[in-house]
Each structure stands twice: as C-alpha cells, then as structure tokens.
Design a protein that fits this description.
Oligomer: single chain
Radius of gyration: 25 Å
Largest sheet: 5 strands, mixed
Bound molecules: copper (II) ion
Strand order of the largest sheet: 3-2-1-5-8
Order of helices and strands: HHHEEEEEEEEEEHH
Shape: elongated
C-alpha cells in the first residue's frame, strides 16, 4: 500500500523531486538539464499527457455507458443498424486531427535536435561489448569507461550507473557527440540531455547537447547489444570552465592518445 501511495505521490510531485539520475519508483522523466530535453518534457507533459488522459477517460465512459445502457435487461430488442455515415466520418476525422496536432510540435522538436549548432567541443563515443570508449579528437585524449562493480561503489555512486572514467564537459557549451561502435549496435543515451543515438559499426552518427547546470548525469546503452548490455552505463560530469581546463591538463597526460593509438595501429597492421 505504501508503495502504491508513493507511486501516486511521485506522479504529482515528480517535477520537484527528481534529480539527474533515476530514482526508486520514479515514473516521470528525469529533470531536464538542456533546452532539448525541456522541449521534450513540455511536449509530453502539456500536450501528450492531456490528450492521452482525455482519450482514455472518453473511451472508459463509452464502455461503461454501453454496458449499462445496452445491457440485455434494459435493451431487450437491440438495434440491427450496421452503418452510420456521420459517425464513421467523425471517428476517422477526429483521430486524424488529433494526430496532426501532435505531429506538428513533435517534428519541430525533432528538427531542432537534428540541427547541430557550432560546436565548442567535440567528443567521440565508441560502443564496445560491453563498455564505452571515448575520444576527445581535438585534445589527443582517449580512454575507456567501465562500470564500477557493486562491491567497489563509493557512497555517492549509483549502482549500475557509475563508471571509472567519466566524460567531463564544460557547462553551457555546445558539445557535439560523434557516436559509433566497434562490434555490434549500441546506443548512446542520456535522458537529462534528451540525447539518444544509435552507435553503428562502420558509421558515425552525430548528436549534440548543451548542459545548463553542473553535476553528474547518468545514462545507459539503449540498444540491446548482448549479454552485458545492462552493464555499460554512461556517465557525464558537467563542470565549470576552470574545472574543465584543470581536468583537461591532467587528462592530456593520463589519457594521451599517442601510445594507445600506436598499439592499435600495430594490431591493425598484423
Ligand atoms: Cu551496448
């Protein structure tokens, strides 16, 4: 009973309590941390949800009305009518209009997401079975990002979501993400930024986000990619410009691409 109450309360106060990672018994979206995600949440909460609720209530009313009004005892001689032109036109036209009302803002959001503004920083995410690899092509940085096992988790790290090497990006900057995969299909997804793109071997997909507040954001591989699909999370740490520069100077040494790339070249030429 407590759990049911919790679910109901979380529907109504979801907006206020959600953080940037999934919460127990959460039903709504994670808090938006980018313009794109805010559009998606507004579209869902202010247009889709009212339409869905209205349709559900209307259909429920029709069913109850038919059950009561046309039950055998109240309506012993049922009508033999099979066609009604007016009703048929209405129940074709009205759903069409509803779909158009939904489609227009939906396409607007899709096209907005699809147009990548001039990027301040480009990162490349590569899906492997089963972890993510990242590159900062302009900074000569490359590293792998593995999920932290449950027994090694620190107090503030969420289970199945925290990784050893997070992607670090500056706040309020346009981040372009190049997404590909090395073996099978994966998908790079981060709910708070409204970002989800397939990672396809031999192809580079692009997306972008502009994180508006600092913090740690969590996502997961969103394409069924094999036995450990659920264990290749995505963690993005959004930091201030100064902190980013500081991380950058360390990362350039720690994750220098040169050596690793030479190894890869050697492997490739074998
Ligand atoms: Cu995957």
């Amino acid at each position: 009973m407590k759990k049911i109450l919790f679910i109901f309360s979380s529907i109504f106060i979801a907006q206020a309590t959600l953080a940037d990672q999934p919460k127990d018994w959460q039903l709504g979206f994670q808090n938006p941390a980018s313009d794109g995600m805010r559009d998606i949440v507004n579209f869902h909460n202010n247009l889709l949800l009212p339409i869905i609720i209205a349709i559900s209530v209307f259909v429920l009313f029709l069913m109850l009305y038919a059950c009561v009004r046309f039950r055998a005892s109240a309506n012993p001689n049922p009508s033999k009518r099979t066609h009604n032109v007016t009703v048929e036109i209405l129940w074709t036209l009205i759903p069409c209009l509803i779909l158009i009302v939904m489609a227009v803002p939906s396409f607007k959001i899709l096209y907005k997401q699809d147009t990548i503004p001039k990027a301040d920083l480009t990162i490349k995410a590569i899906g492997y079975q089963w972890y993510w690899g990242y590159e900062y092509p302009d900074e000569n940085i490359i590293f792998d990002s593995y999920m932290i096992e449950e027994k090694d988790l620190k107090a503030d790290q969420p289970r199945l979501l925290a990784v050893d090497n997070e992607v670090v990006v500056p706040v309020n900057k346009v981040i372009k993400v190049l997404i590909t995969a090395n073996d099978v299909l994966h998908a790079w997804a981060l709910p708070s930024f409204g970002v989800k793109r397939d990672a396809v071997p031999g192809r580079i997909n692009e997306t972008w986000f502009k994180a508006e507040k600092e913090g740690t954001y969590y996502g997961q591989c969103s394409e069924l990619c094999g036995i450990k699909h659920a264990f290749m999370p995505i963690t993005v740490k959004v930091v201030s410009e100064e902190d980013y520069q500081e991380w950058l100077s360390e990362a350039r040494v720690k994750f220098a691409k040169e050596e690793i790339e030479n190894d890869k070249l050697k492997l490739a030429s074998k």
